[in-house]
Amino acid sequence: MLELLNTWLIAPFDYGFMRRAVVGGLALSIAAPPLGVFLVLRGMSLIGDALAHAIMPGVAIGFLLAGFSLPIMSISGVLCGLMVALLAGAVSKIGGQREDAAMASFFIISLAAGVMLISMGGSSVDLTHVLFGSILAVNATALLLIAGISTLILVTLAIIFRALVVECLDPLFLRGQNRRNGWVHSVFLALLVLNMTAGFQTLGTMMAVGLMMLPATAARFWSRRLEGLMAIAVVIAMVASTGGLLLSFHLDIPSGPSIILLAGVGYLFSAMFGRYHSLAARLRRKTAPLSAEAST
Amino acid sequence: MPLLFNVIVGHETAAIGDDTACGAVGAGGVGWRVAQMSQRTSSRLQLKNLHLAQGHRTVLEHVDGDIRPGAITALIGANGAGKSTLIQAIMGELRPAGGNVICSVPSERRAWLPQQLALDLTFPMSVEELVMTGSWPSHGALKGYCAVHYRKGRDIMARLGISHLAHRPLGELSGGQRQRALIGRTLMQEAELLLLDEPFANVDSDTVDILIRILRQMADDGTTIIIVLHDMDHLRRLADEILMLNGGHARWVAPSELHHQQLPAQAVPFSLGEHHAGTA
């Protein structure tokens, strides 16, 4: 039995690339879910997807200039993502179009531009790398970058936490005090872009959103408190990223999809058996009046 | 008294049951105070020849007046008369087309309860936490709460009669409970200027009684309160000053004028406006 556990859970980490991958995955799992929780609470769940597309052209340009170098791809990715987000914000502010419509337009343009740029300069293997990631090729530099970005995200989130909560809860409350709180929104978007860049190396641009959103949406079924939501989301993300890595190691499948699919299983399980709003909770509620009567 | 409310126009019929109940209480001698409060300080909120427009449409013109500190000023007028517009302008949300609003209350001491709440009721937050957010503007975003804050929060909830709801999520509150919690937030904020846009809509009569008492206490403690009211009974019980908006103009009306009016004229504030148009 111990032998089996060892071969399945411990032995894979004898390899250096697995150790780096798991540390990178855990760092992302701490930073990404709290952002996802706020996205869900603000009703902006799909913005993450859009932002993931926005960093594509930047990543592609970095890739064309310097090959598969993570730092350069990340920096140009962040710059591009911020620029697209700013542009979308500007169009909606100046032109009066709703922000989500502006974002959707810009981000789909970015995706097309990114894919075109990469396929101009590289092979289809490179394209797959960027789109779906390769957690198994995380080197020490990449690890530092991921850990650094995750730390930055957590610290910034802690600083703007209350402002962000008030902005989600009651946007008019702070505005009523004549404070221009547009900066909270901007900083939050910047954090999202940063998180995407940390995630794309390991999970790919298309999958990076998964580790942010799925744990957050799943946590909604388990807690009705903000702290609880974040803690549960982080735990789900950690289990999913570690478990997904092991699955990908043993079954020889790509790491990105296996991590996200594991998180997806977590989500479906939560949707069925979670404490609140789940299928099981709905069934329980139907029988509640009788039992409540019996207990009183 | 109950008869009086039958005159009230359509959109207010929903409140009739509550109003008659309060009316019975109010008739017992609670009443509004005669506007002889202390003239402690000069006005901290002045309107100077204010001209307000929504888009190209002028809503209000030549609005003048000092809002008396520590008093409850009621805004009355028909739908579309510009009550909410005036509140937006005072709050700095709407830039005046002409004239100005001079407000010396620091921004972290201004509170505003709009008619259309932007409050996200699905947000995972308890009543106690909502009340505590009132301390954020002055306390800063980074410092933690200490025991003093929590004690103050509990005192406030006790005054509002919502102590038992402290840990209830916002989404499970009734309209009245929610309104009490929101007033609790402004108490926590130690607001010096409080703007309320129809705070008694969809609120049960017990809550109205408590809120009227609390608002009066706040005013006695020096808070300047501006409140949009539709209901004559509430007006009688709360208003120290009345600013009536009608046909794009604002006019100050003494509460005593309301008092001595014939009953039918009182029932609908805006008909009273027309009545006075001749005398003004």
UniProtKB/TrEMBL annotation, chain A:
Keyword Transport: yes
Compartmental location: Cell membrane; Membrane
Gene3D superfamilies with a match to the protein in the record: ABC transporter involved in vitamin B12 uptake, BtuC
SUPFAM superfamilies: ABC transporter involved in vitamin B12 uptake, BtuC
Residue ranges crossing the lipid bilayer per the database entry: 20-41, 72-91, 103-125, 131-161, 182-200, 229-251, 257-276
GO CC term, one of those recorded: ATP-binding cassette (ABC) transporter complex
Gene Ontology process terms (BP): response to zinc ion; transmembrane transport
A Pfam family the protein falls into: ABC-3
Membrane topology classification: Multi-pass membrane protein
Keywords, sorted A to Z: Membrane, Transmembrane, Transmembrane helix, Transport
Keyword Transmembrane helix assigned: yes
Family recorded in the similarity comment: Belongs to the ABC-3 integral membrane protein family.
PANTHER family reported for this sequence: ABC-TRANSPORTER METAL-BINDING PROTEIN, IRON TRANSPORT SYSTEM MEMBRANE PROTEIN HI_0360-RELATED
Protein name: Zinc ABC transporter, inner membrane permease protein ZnuB
Organism: Halomonas citrativorans
UniProtKB/TrEMBL annotation, chain B:
Domain called ABC transporter: residue spans: 45-272
GO molecular function: ATP binding; ATP hydrolysis activity
Coiled coil: none
Name this polypeptide is given: Zinc ABC transporter, ATP-binding protein ZnuC
Gene3D superfamilies reported in the protein's UniProt record: P-loop containing nucleotide triphosphate hydrolases
One Pfam match: ABC_tran
Family according to the record: Belongs to the ABC transporter superfamily.
Alphabetically ordered keywords of this record: ATP-binding, Nucleotide-binding, Transport
InterPro entries: AAA+_ATPase, ABC_transporter-like_ATP-bd, ABC_transporter-like_CS, Metal_Ion_Import_ABC, P-loop_NTPase
